[in-house]
Amino acid sequence: KSANPQWREQFDFHYFSDRKDILDIEVWRKDNKKHEELLGTCHVDITALPTKQTNCLELPLEKHPGSLLMLVAVAPCTGVSISDLCVCPLGDPNEWQQISQRYCIKNSFRDIKDIGFLQVKVLKAVDLMAADFSGKSDPFCVLELGNDMLQTHTVYKNLNPEWNKVFTFPIKDIHDVLEVTVFDEDGDKPPDFLGKVAIPLLSV
């Protein structure tokens, strides 16, 4: 019930130079649980923003009244990576030793915010639901931890996809839950949901 909402939410998106350069933003309104209406869209060209500083942007909504006020900062990624299984970051014994030293008990209070990191190997999925008329799916896997999100590539026309990717997340809250969701890519349409699993970090 507000025409001037304040969300004050922060989201971290991991931007890689070989990916899409445009941040797409949509504003929606809800009448009830079933009805939603698009109030407008706007776009931010990431490559045009100065790095290592916070940019205050007032973005008018396209073809609709109103605007969005946002703070956007582009900074080098730290502790986040996507790699192939054969070049797993923890596969190097020297790096493993450095990590063990960094998080040993005597260094626990050196940096309170540096809780640790989580490394996830996404190998494959088995017997997925067929989302296409052809009896196949175009699955990809999305990993979310807190407000961090990374995803695999899409394996086309396959119900038993193999991704063989390694994902590394910095941990900001030990009570976070790792959510792993499999979607079916559907061209320009929103992806279809194929399944999900939630793993509390405290259970690892």
Structure report:
- With 204 residues, the chain is mainly beta.
- It has 2 domains: 22-74, no CATH class; 81-203, Immunoglobulin-like (Sandwich).
- The chain contains 1 helix and 11 strands, in the order βββββαββββββ.
- It has one helix at residues 93-102, and strands at 22-30, 36-45, 54-60, 67-73, 81-84, 116-124, 139-145, 148-151, 162-171, 177-186, 189-200.
- The strands form 4 sheets. The chain has a 4-stranded antiparallel β-sheet with strand order 8-7-10-11, with no helix packed on it. A 3-stranded antiparallel β-sheet has the order 5-9-6, with no helix packed on it.
- The longest helix has 10 residues, at 93-102.
- The mean pLDDT is 86.
Largest pleated sheet: 4 strands, antiparallel
Succession of helices and strands: EEEEEHEEEEEE
CATH class of the largest domain: Mainly Beta
For the secondary structure, the number of strands is 11
The fold-level CATH name of the largest domain is Immunoglobulin-like
Structural class from helices and strands? mainly beta
What's the architecture of the largest domain, going by CATH? Sandwich
- Domain tally: 2
Please identify which CATH superfamily of the largest domain we are dealing with: C2 domain
**Poorly predicted parts:** none
Strand content: 35-45%
User: Can you count the helices?
Assistant: 1
What would the average pLDDT be, to the nearest integer? 86
Shape: globular
Question: Helix share of residues?
Answer: under 10%
Which strands sit side by side, in order, in the main sheet? 8-7-10-11
The N- to C-terminal Cα distance equals 41 Å
